[in-house]
Structure formats: structure tokens, C-alpha cells
């Protein structure tokens, strides 16, 4: 049983990897940015766990800014993704430039 | 000196105002004269202006101080200079030069100075403002007085009268000019003087109706008079009460002097005005001093009514000395009053309301000292505070002047006497039962060495009887018993007076805590005092040995008595402040390690980007577009740098300022970059 699950996991992982390579480059850039922001937030949480939350304001601002920019990047990704058919009519502006402009303003 | 004088003046005015219905006004005396020497004689012998010189010299002349020889030389030079060439000086200078000349007599004689007269007469003709009228008309009056040459008269006196009258208002005040609607009582005084001058210079009688209108103006003006509680009247305006009231009085005096028919003014108000000026005391300001003395001189010598003031050299009657009560009645300057009779209508004691101890007692007159005195007091005149009410009756028959006094003058009087102290004794009582353990009689006139002893279960009683000379019970203002321990700790107790005697009972059982449980020898001191008591006393009665229980743990300690009585003024102990303990910060190395760790994801991001094949191919290459693109990215970098600076050292406001500037810059540059990019992509699409 274990072997099959590990094999399944490996197969799963491989199929994911191949599917992911098919995504367009600009989406991959946004994904990378999100991963970067989340990592930064995690490192700050680890630091706070280690030394205590004395300047609590600093901790909050650091973590929440990372998380916020990650969330905005995810929104951008949703709107930019051509394969996302459900989302087509829900955007305020339909062209790419408008979506990017909104992202920049939000940040 | 000015500030001190001004402060003194304010205090005096306040004192006059706060004094209730009863107060004493003293006529002008030598203290005024010596103060005048301080205020009016300049250090270097010359005055700053002719107006100041006139005020100073007039005051010194009224007070009878002869300083002419010292001051006349420099001032006379000024006067002669102005009078020699009147055309080059203003009307005001000519007027004050003539005024000073009237006092110092620098230039006099038969010949009338024609150029001065002509200047003043043209001044009258051309005058439009009240002050111009005043200076020119009064100047002509002064020329007429000083130079006994040809007669000067005002050509069309009635026109001048009317034009001055045209500036008046219905409430009795006057305006300074026809353009300015502001009116003032001070200007009314000036107008009265001017109109009086016009009347005296007129070649023929002025129409009586005009003079009547002026009299009604005066009556109207008196309706706006103000008063204080102590019966003083005054006029108040923006120039200040003293200047305004003095100006009005001067005007009234000139008018009454020039007018043949009498001017009827309410007598009580005239006396009130006199009391106002006497109540000022000694002013520190030169102008106020001049106004005070000048106004009082006008009141002393005028044709409507001369006020008389009742004053007392001393308001304390001593029943032991049996001296008579002296009263003086004089004019405001202290000169002799005419024949009159003074009556003490009532002597109201402060305690009993309404009933008077003395009724309608006539005072005898002593011609040598010009005082009225009351020799004997009735038998029921006891010590204490009284209000004496005096009435003055002027003998009308033999006077050419009209004298006026107050209807009733109220004066506060204090009667003092020797208080007898009887049956003074001090005793130690056993509590509850009240039986006397030891009792000693006291003679409070000499210091005694009474020796008592008591424990905390007993009481100390002091009792005495205080009686006035008439035998009534006397309640002193201050009656204290002081117990002083060997260690200098003191306690003060009040001796209460009730019914027949004054008594104090100290119950040591209740006082044990107050005495800080200190046993030992206590000195006893008794103090009795009052304003009406001529024999107030402070006597050391003796000492008492007190046996008090031990001090329990929680009881208060006696305060440390300083060995040196001045040690309460030494600096106090230093206060050490307790600050909040700062929070514990993590170790520096740990923070630096994590700083490095934070940078790692960013580096990972960049590496990932290059692995994905991110390119910057659409970075424009043409010069214009490239510069704007570079500037744009540079601007963004600058904003990020600003964030770092804000974190490290800048404050929010400078950061926001810099950010706004950078933002505007970025807006322009970014717009240009984007338009370049849009143009490039359009070209690509079309191409």
C-alpha cells in the first residue's frame, strides 16, 4: 500500500510539474512573486516566535504587507489568466493594460 | 518711580472704591506738597513741552510752592521764543506759551503783541475743530488778562458761539469735529471753557437763549454722572475719570465766572465730585496730579457752590485717656470754613442695629485750632466699633459764597479701653467626676511659675472673666492657650467666650494622640488680644507635667522640630524619578542573522526570474524614450530609498513631502514612458 501511495504521489507530482510548465511565462512570474512574498512573511513569523513580539507594530506591518501584496498578485493572476473563462465578464476593464494598471494602483 | 507711583495710585483708587458707605476724606495737606516737589520738578530744570511746563507750574502755584526762580529761566526762553514768532508755531503752542507766561510773567506789559492777536483771531475765524476753537479763544482771553493794552474783542461772537454749539450732542456731550461722530465728556468740558471765553470776549451781550441752551446742555451732562458706593461722583470717558471730570469742572468754573446769571448745579453732586478728587490720594502721574489739584482749586473758588469737607485727625477714641473727639470742617484745600455748626446725629454701634448710643449732640468749636470737639461721652459708651453720623449746618446769612456740604457724613470710629480680667484660674480636674485635684489662681499681669501635674485621665481647665469698662462681657478677637513641650513641639488651643466667662477645658484622654504621646514638661502660655483692648496680654503662666501612655506602633511621630527656625527655608530633598524599565531587546547577532535570512527570498525571486527567461527586450532604445524610461525606474528606486530612509531616520512629514515631490515627478515620467511603449506596440501591431 505504501509503495503505491508513494508512487501515486510521485506520479501526481510529475503530472503537476508537466502541467505547470505549460502555463505561460507571465503567470509564472506572478507565481514566483507570490511565493517570494509568502516566504518573507513566514521568515518574519519565525523571528517573532523566536524573540517575542515586543514591537508588535513592526511585526504586524511586516507580515501584513507581505500577505497583502501576495493577495493582490493572486488577484492579478486570476484576471490575467486567459484560460479562466468564468472571470471574463467580471472585470471592470477587459484589456490587459487596465488590469495591470489596477494592480499597480492597489499596491 | 512711574510704575511705583502708578501702582500706588491704582491701590488708592481701589481702596477708595472698596471702602463702604463710611469713609474719611482728608483735605489736601503737606504730604501733597512734598509729593508735588517729587513729581513736578524736573531733574535738569527744563520741561519736555510747554503743556507739561504749564501743568507743573500751575500745580505748584496752586499748592503755594515757590519754585519759580529755579525753573523760570529755561522755560521762559521757550515761552519768549514761541511768543516772538507766533506764525511759525501751532495754536496749541501759542496757547500753552501764553498760559505759562501768565504764571511766570516772562513777558508782560502795555503793548499788545499784534502778531499774536492776529494769529489767534484768524485761528478763531478758520477754526473747524473743537480744539482749534479752544486754543484760539482761550488764547485771546489770556492775552486780554496779561497785556493791559487795547481791548480785544471777538467780532462776531454769536456766530462763533453757534458754530461751537453745533458740535454738541443731545446727551450733553460734545464732538471734537463735525466729521467724527465720536463724542466725549472731556470735549464737553473743553467746549464749556471755550464758550465761556466767547461770552467774556463778546463786545455786546450774547442772546440769552443761546446761554440757556448751554445751561440745558450742562444739566443733561450731569445726568450721565457716575458714582461709587461711598458717595463720590465722577464722569468717566476714554481719557480716564480724573482727566474727564477735571475738564468738566474747569469748564463749569469758567462758565459760571463769565455768566452773570447763576448756574444751578445739584449740591450733592458737587460735594461728590470734591470727594472723588480727595479720594484719589496722592497720584504718581503728573497729569493726574495736575488734574486733581486744578479741579479742586476750581471747586474751592467758584461762583456756584463751594464744597466743605468734614475730616477727623484721628478715628480712635480711647476711653482710658478721656480725650475729646476732634472734627475738622474745611474746604478741599484745608482753608477755613465759614461759620457753621456740627452735630453728631447718631452713633451707631456695629453690634446693635439701629439703636444709637448718642443722639443729636452738638459739638463745641475751638477757634484757635479751628476744630469742633465732643468732650464727654455718655455713660453707656462702651468699647467696640461704631459709625458716627455727623450733620453740618452752614450759617447762611453772612456769606457771599454759597457753601455746600454733605447731608450726612458717616465716619467709622473705634473706641478702645482697658479690659478688666478677673477670676483667672487654672485647675486640674479628675475626669467624669469633675472634682478638682489642684487649682491655682492666676495673676495674668505678671509671669508666673505655676506648676501642675496631670495624667492622661484628667482634664485641664482654664477660666477667666473679661469685662469692658462698663461691665459687659467682653469677647476678645484672639484668645489662645499654647502648650509647648520640651522638644519644642507646640499645640495651640482656643479659649471660647460664652455667657459670663471665657473657659477652656482640655480633656487629655482625647488629646493623647494629638500630643503625639509625648510625656514631660509642657510650658503654658496665654494670649489675649483685640483691637478694642488697650491692655492685650501674652503671659507665661507656668508649666504642667503631663504623664501620657506609651506610643503605640502605628501612632504618628511628632514632626521634627528644626533647631534653627530658618531651616524651613533650606532646599528640600532631591526627588529621584523612576522611569519605566526599557523592554528587553533580542541579541544583536540574532537580529542580523534574520536580516540576512529575509534577503534570501528576494534573491531566490531574482534567480527564478532569470531561470524563467524574463527579458527586458521592450526597453526602448531610442534616446528620448530611453531617458524617460530610465528616469521612471530611477524614480521608483528613489521612492524605495526614501522608504528605507524613513525607516531609519526621517519622520513622517519630511517623508511625505519628499514622497509627494517624487510622486509628481514619477507621474510625468511614467506617463511619457507608457506613451512611448504604447506607440511602440502600436507600431508593432500595424507593422
From TrEMBL, chain A:
Keywords: Apoptosis, Endoplasmic reticulum, Membrane, Transmembrane, Transmembrane helix. It holds the Pfam family DAD. The keyword Endoplasmic reticulum applies. It is found in: Endoplasmic reticulum membrane. Pathway: Protein modification; protein glycosylation. The chain crosses the membrane at residues 30-50, 56-80. The keyword Endoplasmic reticulum applies. It is a multi-pass membrane protein. Component of the oligosaccharyltransferase (OST) complex. Belongs to the DAD/OST2 family. Subunit of the oligosaccharyl transferase (OST) complex that catalyzes the initial transfer of a defined glycan (Glc(3)Man(9)GlcNAc(2) in eukaryotes) from the lipid carrier dolichol-pyrophosphate to an asparagine residue within an Asn-X-Ser/Thr consensus motif in nascent polypeptide chains, the first step in protein N-glycosylation. N-glycosylation occurs cotranslationally and the complex associates with the Sec61 complex at the channel-forming translocon complex that mediates protein translocation across the endoplasmic reticulum (ER). All subunits are required for a maximal enzyme activity. This is Dolichyl-diphosphooligosaccharide--protein glycosyltransferase subunit DAD1. The lineage of its organism: Eukaryota, Viridiplantae, Streptophyta, Embryophyta, Tracheophyta.
Amino acid at each position: 500500500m505504501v509503495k503505491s501511495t508513494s508512487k501515486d504521489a510521485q506520479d501526481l507530482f510529475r503530472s503537476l510539474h508537466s502541467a505547470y510548465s505549460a502555463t505561460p511565462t507571465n503567470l509564472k512570474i506572478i507565481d514566483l512573486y507570490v511565493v517570494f512574498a509568502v516566504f518573507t512573511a513566514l521568515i518574519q513569523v519565525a523571528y517573532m516566535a523566536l524573540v517575542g513580539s515586543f514591537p508588535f507594530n513592526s511585526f504586524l506591518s511586516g507580515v501584513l504587507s507581505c500577505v497583502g501584496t501576495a493577495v493582490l498578485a493572486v488577484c492579478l493572476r486570476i484576471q490575467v489568466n486567459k484560460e479562466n473563462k468564468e472571470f471574463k465578464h467580471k472585470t471592470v476593464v477587459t484589456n490587459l493594460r487596465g488590469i495591470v494598471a489596477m494592480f499597480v494602483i492597489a499596491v | 518711580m512711574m510704575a511705583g507711583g502708578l501702582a500706588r495710585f491704582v491701590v488708592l483708587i481701589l481702596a477708595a472704591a472698596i471702602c463702604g458707605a463710611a469713609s474719611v476724606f482728608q483735605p489736601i495737606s503737606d504730604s501733597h506738597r512734598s509729593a508735588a516737589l517729587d513729581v513736578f520738578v524736573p531733574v535738569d530744570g527744563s520741561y519736555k513741552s510747554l503743556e507739561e511746563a504749564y501743568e507743573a507750574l500751575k500745580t505748584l502755584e496752586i499748592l503755594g510752592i515757590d519754585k519759580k526762580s529755579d525753573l523760570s529761566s529755561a522755560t521762559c526762553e521757550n515761552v519768549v521764543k514761541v511768543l516772538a514768532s507766533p506764525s511759525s508755531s501751532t495754536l496749541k503752542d501759542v496757547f500753552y506759551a501764553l498760559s505759562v507766561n501768565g504764571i511766570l510773567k516772562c513777558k508782560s506789559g502795555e503793548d499788545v503783541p499784534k502778531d499774536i492777536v492776529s494769529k489767534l483771531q484768524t485761528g478763531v475765524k478758520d477754526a473747524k475743530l473743537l480744539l482749534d476753537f479752544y486754543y484760539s479763544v482761550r488764547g485771546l482771553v489770556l492775552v486780554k488778562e496779561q497785556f493791559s493794552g487795547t481791548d480785544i474783542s471777538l467780532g462776531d461772537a454769536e456766530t462763533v458761539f453757534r458754530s461751537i454749539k453745533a458740535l454738541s450732542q443731545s446727551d450733553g456731550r460734545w464732538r471734537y469735529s463735525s466729521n467724527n461722530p465720536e463724542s466725549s465728556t472731556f470735549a464737553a468740558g473743553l467746549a464749556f471753557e471755550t464758550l465761556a471765553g466767547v461770552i467774556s470776549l463778546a463786545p455786546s451781550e450774547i442772546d440769552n437763549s443761546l446761554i440757556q441752551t448751554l445751561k440745558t446742555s450742562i444739566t443733561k451732562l450731569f445726568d450721565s454722572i457716575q458714582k461709587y458706593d461711598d458717595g463720590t461722583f465722577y464722569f468717566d470717558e476714554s481719557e480716564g475719570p480724573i482727566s474727564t471730570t477735571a475738564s468738566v469742572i474747569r469748564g463749569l468754573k469758567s462758565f459760571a465766572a463769565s455768566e452773570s446769571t447763576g448756574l444751578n448745579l445739584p449740591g450733592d453732586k458737587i460735594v461728590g465730585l470734591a470727594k472723588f478728587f480727595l479720594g484719589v490720594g496722592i497720584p504718581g502721574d503728573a497729569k493726574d496730579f495736575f488734574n486733581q489739584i486744578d479741579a479742586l482749586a476750581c471747586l474751592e473758588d467758584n461762583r456756584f457752590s463751594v464744597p466743605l469737607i468734614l475730616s477727623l485727625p484721628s478715628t480712635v477714641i480711647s476711653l482710658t485717656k478721656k480725650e475729646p473727639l476732634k472734627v475738622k470742617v474745611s474746604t478741599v484745600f484745608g482753608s477755613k470754613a465759614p461759620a457753621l455748626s456740627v452735630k453728631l446725629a447718631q452713633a451707631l454701634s456695629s453690634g446693635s442695629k439701629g439703636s444709637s448710643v448718642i443722639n443729636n449732640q452738638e459739638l463745641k468749636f475751638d477757634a484757635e485750632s479751628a476744630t469742633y470737639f465732643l468732650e464727654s461721652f455718655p455713660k453707656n459708651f462702651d468699647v467696640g466699633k461704631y459709625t458716627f453720623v455727623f450733620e453740618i449746618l452752614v450759617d447762611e446769612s453772612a456769606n457771599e459764597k454759597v457753601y455746600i456740604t454733605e447731608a450726612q457724613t458717616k465716619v467709622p470710629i473705634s473706641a478702645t479701653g482697658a479690659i478688666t480680667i478677673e477670676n483667672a484660674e487654672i485647675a486640674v480636674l479628675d475626669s467624669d467626676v469633675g472634682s478638682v485635684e489642684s487649682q491655682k489662681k492666676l495673676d495674668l499681669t505678671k509671669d508666673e511659675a505655676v506648676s501642675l501635674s496631670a495624667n492622661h485621665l484628667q482634664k485641664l481647665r482654664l477660666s477667666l472673666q473679661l469685662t469692658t469698662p462698663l461691665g459687659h462681657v467682653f469677647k476678645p478677637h484672639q484668645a489662645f492657650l499654647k502648650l509647648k513641650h520640651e522638644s519644642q513641639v507646640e499645640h495651640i488651643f482656643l479659649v471660647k467666650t460664652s455667657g459670663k466667662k471665657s473657659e477652656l477645658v482640655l480633656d487629655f484622654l482625647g488629646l493623647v494622640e494629638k500630643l503625639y504621646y509625648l510625656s514631660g514638661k509642657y510650658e503654658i502660655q496665654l494670649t489675649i488680644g483685640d483691637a478694642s483692648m488697650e491692655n492685650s496680654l501674652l503671659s507665661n503662666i507656668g508649666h504642667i507635667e503631663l504623664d501620657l501612655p506609651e506610643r503605640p506602633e502605628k501612632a504618628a511621630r511628632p514632626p521634627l522640630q528644626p533647631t534653627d527656625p530658618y531651616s524651613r527655608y533650606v532646599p528640600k530633598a532631591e526627588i529621584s524619578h523612576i522611569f519605566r524599565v526599557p523592554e528587553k531587546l533580542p541579541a544583536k547577532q540574532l537580529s542580523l542573522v534574520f536580516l540576512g535570512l529575509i534577503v534570501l527570498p528576494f534573491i531566490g525571486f531574482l534567480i527564478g526570474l532569470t531561470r524563467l527567461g524574463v527579458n527586458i527586450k521592450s526597453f526602448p532604445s531610442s534616446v528620448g524614450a530611453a531617458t524617460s524610461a530610465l528616469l521612471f525606474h530611477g524614480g521608483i528606486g528613489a521612492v524605495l530609498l526614501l522608504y528605507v530612509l524613513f525607516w531609519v531616520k526621517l519622520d513622517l512629514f519630511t517623508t511625505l513631502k519628499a514622497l509627494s515631490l517624487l510622486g509628481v515627478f514619477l507621474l510625468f515620467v511614467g506617463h511619457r514612458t507608457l506613451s512611448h511603449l504604447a506607440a511602440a506596440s502600436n507600431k508593432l501591431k500595424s507593422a
